[in-house]
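ok so i was messing around last nite and threw this chain in just to see what happens. nothing serious, just curious
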Amino acid sequence: MSLPLFPTTSVGSFPKPDYLKKARAQASKGEIPAKKLRELEERATREWIHFQEEIGVDILVDGEMYRGDMVTYFAETLKGFEISGLVRSYGNRYYKKPIVVDEVKRAKRDTIEWYEFAQSLTKKPVKGMLT
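result:
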């Protein structure tokens, strides 16, 4: 891999487009199927990969379009968690709080599928995201 001496990258999370925020709210109410939400998450990921390429970032990120916050996504993919009430975080943003209720175990692959999808969209390196 040929990278500059000081390659550029990002922390990882990018803002969710309005269409994705709306779709995530609709999916949580059962108004749209998971497949439709996934399509929109992939669309947003494509847009962010393209944007990073346009501005010349060296090591790209997927933008984390598949998760609403840093913690709940992982709690939902691991065994041993329950999702509780809302907690205030980052000013006026609210998230569902995960609570450990049993031994924590990996139930399935977390972000590998998203990493592979993002990497398939570019020839530049993509770093995997893990909180």
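not much to say yet. The mean pLDDT is 89.
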